[in-house]
Amino acid sequence: MIKNKTGKFISNVYLIAMLIFMYLPIIYMCVFSFNSSRSLTRWTGFSTQWYERLFSDYTIGEAVYYTVLVALLATIFSTIIGTITAIGLSKSRYVIREIITNINDLPMMNPDIVTAIGMMLLFASLGLEKGFMTMLIAHITFCTPYVILNVMPKLRGLDPNIAEAAMDLGATPFQALIQVIVPQIAPGIMSGALIAFTMSIDDFVISYFVTGNGVKNISILVYSMSKRLNPTINALSTIMVSIVTIVLVLINVVPVINAKMKNKKISEEGNY
Amino acid sequence: MRELIQFRNIVKEFDGQLVLKGINLDICENEFVTLLGPSGCGKTTLLRILGGFIEQTEGEVYFDGIEISNVPPYKREINTVFQRYALFPHMNVFDNIAFGLNIKKENKDVIKQKVTKMLKLVGLEGYENRAVTQMSGGQQQRVAIARALVNEPMVLLLDEPLGALDLKLRKEMQVELKKIQKEVGITFIYVTHDQEEALTMSDKIVVLNEGEIQQIGSATDIYNEPENEFVAKFIGESNIIDGIMLDDYRVVFFDKEFECVDYGFHDNEPVDIVIRPEDIDIVDVEKGMIKGTVKSILFKGVHYEIMVETEHEDLKVHTTDVSEVGKEVGLSFFPEDIHVMSKMAAY
Do B100 and A170 touch (CB under 8 A)? Predict the structure, then answer.
């Protein structure tokens, strides 16, 4: 008994230490975004001036706009491309499927800097002007493998007759795809899209090499600002952390609530 | 009866391997037809060609007089009950059954009415909102049947639908399927490897082996008059003995001449002789047509399975009478119990 208790105590301490280690820097940053002075180490009092500055700063606003726009577009395109590719692969022959999935894994293991320089050289040799379009293309490219990787296992678990059953009941192949296949692999598509979105939002290396024409995302902007310490970065980061936290909470809580509502409905209707 | 489906010289090749070797088969309206054969005999392949999921290498399929090889599955008036049901797990029972009607954009009230009628037919009233993943195998089976039948197809294809159910449930569903078929009055094409299932339900049984039709006939035809050794062995249990047909109604085996009811063979033609184990009686040694010793006895529930060792071959006997190992017995049977078949062509 005593051994168990000490064991539990140690594991709790370990867990708390881990959490502190991971979250203390973030909390520290959040707290200092409300500091009244410029100092990043000495607390001088509460103020929201850095938030005010953030919202009045045009370059920051523009960077946020580009970051979100690129992330949304890259997520949409890479999710569509990745899902279609995964479905195609699941129906192709074993050898082709193995080759393509291995090629698909390569860019994820490759260091970002290699991909970045490769992309930069490619765009230069094609004579494309660096800017918003090149950044978007690059983001779609490095996001797609993550979608494929997330959708493939869901397809493997699918009943092989299910698409046939839909077509047997009069659905065209497209209807079968939309009404039967997609709803069942939806969790895989969703997690693929979420990973694509986060990969795109926090990408620095690749974006830095392929953008131009004054188009900057948040990472590039923060990098250029970090030489002159400025708490507006703290404010911006705090807002991003809050958004991510809210989104994550929603993603995890909404399905639980939905399931509960559904169960309640069934048990109510079941009483006849 | 009108011929609804005609297979003409269907050949199917998978990676250089012939799965179907020229199938010719006619299926009539309102028939319960079973494609029976061991696994790998091509029965499911034939069904999938009819459903439109794979294309034959050679040959034609006529449906209601029209060649349908180029018609996609969603335009065929055929519905299928799949081996592992293939229900849509993200939909409840109602939406599963209504799927085909929703695709056809039928009126909501009509859909509700038709689905309710189907649920009643398969005995699942009140299960509309149940998730299909929370149902037992037997219930899922019923949903799959309702989902197919609600579209009012001319033909229902069933691909080993009872394979995953336990024995008792399987027997219940056999009776029920036959009942449903009579009620809706359409053609059922049923694929199975279970000979008992085939005998219980079918109007017509098509015995397949290695991509070829071995015999087509009613349950009694196939059981009592198997056309060759394969059919005799596959349907029920049998003793198969080499013999020689002297002339009509006279056959020799075990160095003895027997009277039989078969005719139309060449004189002195070598033949296979089938005697079903239940047709052999164990009698006293002196009364028997063949003498032997009881080699082993197995209790099978309804009857005993007794192996009798004779001078030539061991014979299997099914009897309700008790015997004992080592006992000298006589075996006796009637002329009509002897069934003579031509030797199978050597492969």
Answer: yes
Among B224, B179, B218, residue whose Cα is nearest residue B199? B218
List strand residue ranges (DSSP E) for B210-320, in order. Answer: 212-217, 239-247, 250-253, 256-259, 269-275, 281-283, 290-299, 304-309, 314-319
Question: Which ipTM did the prediction report?
Answer: 0.78
Amino acid at A80: I
Whole-number Å distance between alpha carbons of A105 and A60? 35
Q: Give the span between the Cα atoms of B308 and A57, in whole angstroms.
A: 102
User: How far, in Å, CA of A134 to CA of A119, rounded?
Assistant: 9
Nearest to B86 among A162, A171, A172 (CB): A162
Residues in CB range of B187: below 8 A, 6 or more apart: B4, B5, B27, B28, B29, B30, B31, B32, B33, B154, B155, B156
Instruction: Go through the domains of chain B in sequence order and give each one's CATH number.
Output: 3-229 (3.40.50.300), 237-342 (2.40.50.140)
Burial of A112 (0-12, 13-18, 19+ CB in 10 A): middle
Decide if A166 and B129 are in contact by the 8 Å CB cutoff.
no
**CB contacts, 8 Å: A157 with chain B:** none
User: Given CB atoms, is B288 within the 8 Å cutoff of chain A?
Assistant: no
Instruction: Give the DSSP letter of residue B346.
Output: P
Question: What whole-number distance in Å separates Cα of residue B318 and Cα of residue B201?
Answer: 24
Write out pLDDT tens, residues A138-172. Answer: 899 989 999 998 888 888 888 888 888 999 898 88
Tens-place pLDDT, residues B283-318: 888 888 888 889 889 888 888 899 998 888 888 999
**Domains, chain A, ordered by start:** 59-254 (1.10.3720.10)
Chain B residue numbers touching A169 (CB-CB < 8 A): 74, 79, 99-100, 103, 147-148, 151
